[in-house]
Design a protein that fits this description.
Structural class: alpha+beta
Shape: globular
Number of strands: 19
Distance between the termini: 39 Å
Strand order of the largest sheet: 16-17-18-15-11-14-13-12-19
Bound molecules: fe (ii) ion
Number of helices: 6
Strand content: 25-35%
Order of helices and strands: EHEEEEHEEEEEEHEEEEHEEEEHH
Helix content: 10-25%
Oligomer: single chain
């Protein structure tokens, strides 16, 4: 069969208590000690202690043992050491940036309560005539449905791309000028994003919510606690088409709410393209803040990596 999305991720931070409080307020459900679930995907986030912030692991969900074996063989062909786990999963270290990539057998996420966007009034189509918009009555935090993607930087962009495509079997959905690439292992436009940058660091995780109103409502709740969490939003990306809003957790990682991401069924023709840099970030939204492209702590991370090597 095949891969079908991200199963979970492990985030390493120096301040576990503060960071877990953020993800509670972000709308994830705490199911164990620093373990968080989404509404549809079960446990998808683990927060662990680390001297500096980093993505410790991302796990890719596979249908069956054949998928795991295929990746095991590809890893061997690339001289990567593979660790076998008791549950049949395997893991290996991404050779450039050192993130652990796990391949694990999981049932596909079934979104048993499909969300249909609410009818809206539009020119010539008063589809919500005679009623107030239901969204104005929604309260409380967003409730992310699943983990959609992770995005990290690499100082050897081509090498990190090869790991994703040739070892894990990801497909390229869109790229921009050798600076950014979006790759998928499911119908989602991207499950991993890669940025070409001299210092390897974790950029963001992204969490699916129902619609653009839920993005706004989630933002409202997070920023009511601490307005300095606001990084960039609301906007619509060009690559992937999704609405987005990004926030900074207390360790410095970004977390994104997204809605309306492009879907690419397995058998669909998809015109993967290399886009000009002006398309790489967004179709519309606020001006891109410097901290989004170059987070404030990058030099600190570079120094920590230097010390660790
Ligand atoms: Fe994203």
């Amino acid at each position: 069969m095949s891969l079908h999305g991200l199963a979970e991720m492990t985030l390493g931070v120096p301040n576990v208590d503060e960071t877990t409080q953020f993800y509670r307020e972000f709308g994830l459900s705490e199911t164990g000690d620093a373990v968080f679930a989404t509404a549809d995907g079960g446990d998808q986030l683990r927060v662990v202690e680390s001297p500096f912030r980093r993505l410790v692991e991302f796990a890719v969900a596979a249908d069956d043992a054949d998928d795991v074996d295929r990746i095991r063989r590809a890893a061997a062909a690339h001289d990567l050491d593979v660790t076998d786990h008791a549950d049949g999963s395997i893991s290996m270290i991404e050779p450039i940036v050192g993130i652990r990539a796990k391949v694990t057998m999981r049932p596909r996420i079934v979104q048993a309560e499909p969300y249909v966007w609410q009818a809206m009034n539009s020119p010539g189509n008063p589809a919500r005539s005679g009623t107030r918009a239901p969204a104005i009555f929604h309260e409380g935090p967003a409730r992310p449905r699943k983990l959609g993607h992770v995005l990290y930087t690499s100082p050897d962009f081509e090498g990190s791309m090869r790991f994703l495509t040739d070892v894990l079997g990801f497909k390229v959905s869109d790229t921009s000028a050798g600076m950014i690439a979006f790759l998928r292992c499911s119908p989602d436009h991207h499950n991993v994003g890669l940025i070409n940058a001299p210092v390897p660091f974790f950029h963001h995780s992204s969490w699916q919510v129902n619609d653009v109103d839920e993005i706004g409502q989630g933002a409202q709740n997070l920023l009511a606690v601490d307005p300095s969490r606001d990084i960039w939003g609301l906007g619509r990306h060009f690559l992937g088409s999704n609405f987005f809003w990004y926030f900074r957790d207390p360790a410095g990682n970004f977390a994104e709410y997204y809605a309306d991401l492009d879907q690419i069924p397995d058998d669909a023709e998809w015109d993967a393209r290399d886009w000009a840099p002006d398309k790489s970030l967004y179709a519309w939204g606020p001006t891109v803040p410097k901290a989004f492209v170059h987070p404030d702590d990058v030099e600190e991370i570079a120094a920590a990596l230097q010390g660790a090597s």
